[in-house]
Each structure stands twice: as structure tokens, then as C-alpha cells.
Amino acid sequence: MRNAAPHMLAPEYALLKNLPRHQRKRFETALQLMHSMPGSTLAWQEVAKRSAISPYHFHRQFTRVFHETPGSYLSRLQLQWAVSMLLDSPQKKILDIALTCGFSSSQALAKALQRELQHTAKAIKAIGQSGTLDELRSVLEPLAHRVSADQAPLEIQLAENLPCRLEVLERRALRLETLPDIGFEELCEQLGEKLYSRAILTPVKLLDAPWEDCIQWFGSWCKATTESAKHKLVPAGEYLTCECYIASDMGYLAALEGMEKQAAKLGVNPDWEGLCVEQVLELDDSLSGGIVLRVEIPISRAETAPAPDNSP
Fold first, then answer.
1. Boundaries of each HTH araC/xylS-type domain copy (predicted)?
2. Contact by Cβ (8 Å): 278, 200
3. String of b and e for 81-109 (b: at least 16 CB within 10 Å)?
């Protein structure tokens, strides 16, 4: 069942929504330029020119709306891309990642990582493969969007009142396919709209597990049948569901945390023996280039849920 509109977990949308239409349109143009060129050396002054705003007014208005200068925003965005690739694509060379994300060399990337995260590129790759959720958060949260230094990232704030609902869903099945050993963004580019008919299943008890210990199934929806080497069944039952728009790894973590908080408010617990279902409903090539993601977590109404066994 599709909700009318996804909940926005992209700070850019939240910060632009109350601007006058003509001003919002210009900033949308600027953000599209900034987000569409990860390896570009395009300066913010050129972004202002292409957005039909003088550099002086662009710098002043951008800083007022987004709570950081356009130069700082571009630098943070550049480092976000690099960290995401280090986490999701460990097979890629660090130099290639640096150049793809607009750094002049692997040394320039190393300096930026040390300055902002106190981590090396190699350490971030290791977190992507075997790190805990807390370690993952430690490299994502410093690069998240903040209104002020003493507040939580805006992605977390936007997920505080995440609109979730309880749905009773019928038994379903996936026709299993091999999940390509590539980053999520590359998967979206490779499959495009074909991704809409596919889903990823993860045991709930392994959602917090290191990536190397995680088990996942990927495939396309098909008529429910008996489980086999080619099919994975998703049991019927009650699920906590949410549809949200996310544009960063931090947005994804915020969505999971927001669902956890909503489950507590509703007085339900995750079914640790169940399967979490994640499905991309829409790919957005405008503004910040995010996705509409549907997440379904099976729930239990038992007063006390057993502690999860995180063994695969």
C-alpha cells in the first residue's frame, strides 16, 4: 500500500519549503548543480551565476537558508560522497574515489578525512565491511546537516515524528537474484526503474550487525510459493511501515532510528525472528538526487520481546 507522500528526510527540502516560490526555484537550480557534479571543480561563484543570482546575494542568502556558506556546503557534500564510496565500494582504489569526488589526489582526501573525521580512508573502508552501527554513525554524523553545533543533525530531527503505520500484510515471496557487489548508488544506476519491482530482505536481528556478518536476500516479487533455493518467503503478519525520501547515508540511519522510536510510542516490538523488507519506490534525479524508500519491519505485540541473538 502506497502512502500519499513520503516523509522528507532530506534537509534541503525542509529548509527550502517556506521560501517564496521564485527564491526557492533559484536555490533548487543551485542545489541541482552542486549535487549533479560530484567530481567537478565547479566553484560556488559559478553556481551562483548559473542560478541567476549575484555571488554576493547568493552567498548571503545561501548562508541564511542553509546555515553554512556555499563553499562549506560543497566541501561537506564532496566528503559525503567520498565516505559513501569508501563504505559501499571497498573494491575501488582510494585514488579513484578521491578523483571521482573532486579531490586533487588521495593525499588531499586523506587530509580532509583526518581533519573532519579523524579517520583514514582505509579505516573507513574497514568500517563498511566489519564495523558496528555505532562506528558507522561516527563517520556519518559529523558530515550531516546541522542548523547549529549544539543540536542533533537535521536528518535526525526530521525523523523525530516519522509517520509510521501498522499494516497487516499477506505472505509474499521474492524470486531470488544475485545482489551485485557494487555500491547502492551504482545499483540504482544499473537497474533504474527495474529496481521498483525488487526488494532487499534482512533478518531483523542482523540489522545492527557488522556488514560482513549480515545476511541479505535480493530479488523480484513473485507469487507466493514454497520456499526453495530460488525463492524466499516473507511471512504474513503485522508490520510497522514507513515511506520516506532520503538523500544520504545519514538519512537512512535517521529513518531506522525514527522507526524504532515510533515502535516504542505505539507499544510494539520488532519481531527479532522476522525479515525487514526494504524497497525503492522512486528514484529522484532532481535537487539532491535521493530515493523514496519503503521499509517494513515485522512487529510483535508481546509485552516483553526477547533479546535478539545476533549470530548469523
1. 28-127
2. yes
3. bbbbbbbbbbebebeebbbebbbeebeeb
Distance CA 94, CA 119 (A): 14
**8 A C-beta contact, residue 69 and residue 163:** no
List pLDDT tens digits, range 3-50. 568 999 999 988 998 899 988 998 998 998 888 776 677 789 999 998
The pairing of beta strand 198-203 with beta strand 217-222: antiparallel
Q: Greatest CA span in the chain, whole angstroms? A: 65
Q: How far is CA 35 from the centre of its chain?
A: 15
Give the number of other Cβ atoms within 10 Å of residue 267's Cβ: 9
Contacts of 37 by beta carbon, 8 Å cutoff, 6+ apart = none
Give the separation between CA 43 and CA 41, rounded to whole angstroms. Answer: 6
Instruction: Tell me how crowded residue 271 is: count the other CB atoms within 10 A of its CB.
Output: 22
Helices (H), the chain: 11-16, 21-35, 44-50, 55-66, 70-88, 94-100, 106-117, 121-130, 133-140, 154-158, 184-191, 249-266
Q: What share of the chain is helix, strand, coil (3-state, %, to 5)?
A: 45, 20, 35
Contact at 8 Å (CB) between 251 and 290? yes
Is the pLDDT score of 1 beyond 50? no
- Nearest CA to 98 out of 73, 122, 118, 117 is that of 122
Helix (H, G, I), strand (E, B) or coil at 139: helix
* Alpha-carbon gap, residue 274 to 282, rounded angstroms: 25
